[in-house]
Amino acid sequence: MKWFPFSRTTLVGLLFSAVGITIVGQLLRINVSSVTRTFSENANRVYEYRREIIYPERGYIYDRWGHLLAGNQEVYEIGVDLNSVTNPESIASVLEEVLDLDYGDILQETKKEYEQGVSEYIVLANFVKPEDIARLEEIRDSYWEIPSSEIKKGERRPSLNGLTWKPHLQRTYPENDVGGNIVGFYAFRDMVKGKPYFGVEEKYDDILSGSTIEVLVPNNPNLIEELPTAPPGASLVLTIDREIQSNVESVIDRAVKQNGAVSGTAIVIDPETGEILAMATTPRLNLNEYWKLTEQFDESTPFNRAVGASFEPGSVFKVLTMATALDTGKVTPNTPFLDTGTITIGGISIFNWDRAAWGPQTMLGCMQHSLNVCLTWVAMQIGNQDFYTYLQNFGIGKKTNIDLAGEVTWPLSVPGDENWWEANLGTNSFGQGVSVTPIQFITAISAIANDGIMMSPHVLKSVIDEERQYDYSPQIIGNPISKETARTLTDMLAVSLEEEASNALVPNYRVAGKTGTAEIAGPYGYTSNQTNASFVGWGPVADPKFVVFVWLEKPSSSPWGSIVASPVFSEIVQNLVTYMDIPPDGTQVGISER
Amino acid sequence: MSTEKNQAFQQAPWRVQLQILGMVLLGFVTTALVASIYLNVSAQTAAAAIETESLSFTRDTLQRQNASLRTEIGVITSAREMRKRAEELGFFLPDAESSHYLLIKGYPGKQTKITAPPITQIELPESILKPIYTQSLWEWLYENLVDFRMNQYGGLLK
Question: Which of A71, A229, A237 sits opposite B70 (nearest CB)?
Answer without folding.
Answer: A71
